[in-house]
Amino acid sequence: MDELDLTMRIDMAQVHLKSLQALLDQKDPAPSSSELATVLGSLMDLLERVRSNSQLLMEVLSRTRGAVYAKDRAGRYLIINQEGAEMFGNSVEEVIGQDDTALFENESAQRIMAIDHSVINTGKSQTFEGTFNIRGIPTTLLVTQTAWYERDGLVCGLIGTAQDITQTRRAESWAATERSRLEFRASEIIATERNLRRSLATKLHEGLGQDLALAKLKLAAMRNAPNGNLREALAQIEELIQQADLSLRSVTAQLGPQAAPDFE
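Above: the chain sequence. Below: its structure as tokens.
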């Protein structure tokens, strides 16, 4: 029953009550008529409160994000808000009285109806996330459903909400993919840097290192030269070469491979 149907029923009931009250007013007042008039007045007040509460309920539903609905035990929609109906590409009037087979593709409808039956049969609330085909479009919904009880405690259906989180999940998936891509790219850069360091260290060792070693050997062979001044100059050169060799070893060690950082 939608808001218009409920309002029309209340209006009709009020019209009948007013007609009955008018008939009573035309007759001579009697104790029984007075009591009946009081009852009629109470019924009028009750109907007005029902109208006010129903209007408040519909206003809340119209301002609620996502779908808000109620179904009977057979899975037929008794209430749904405007945004919920628009999720299926329908009006509220087109959804009321339908079950999920009219709104979802068959496989999705069967999945949802199985969950509905579980909530109704066990009385236990359920919150779940799933991707369903709505009008041929995969749509990810976050759904919460709870049993709907009558005054006598029997389950007469269920009440639920459904949020379309398709865009949220897509954004999260994109972010995760982008993070993986950046991590892979960073690993490639680190591996390239490590290879460059190793290559440069090898070239320094095999190039300058060997040249320095050869120079040291030649200087050692000339160390016993008879000329004292020459020996002193050679010693100074040998000391400089020794310092250069130590510096080269230090640079080569620093250019060696380093541990790659961990990504968390």
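The first helix runs from residue 3 to 26.
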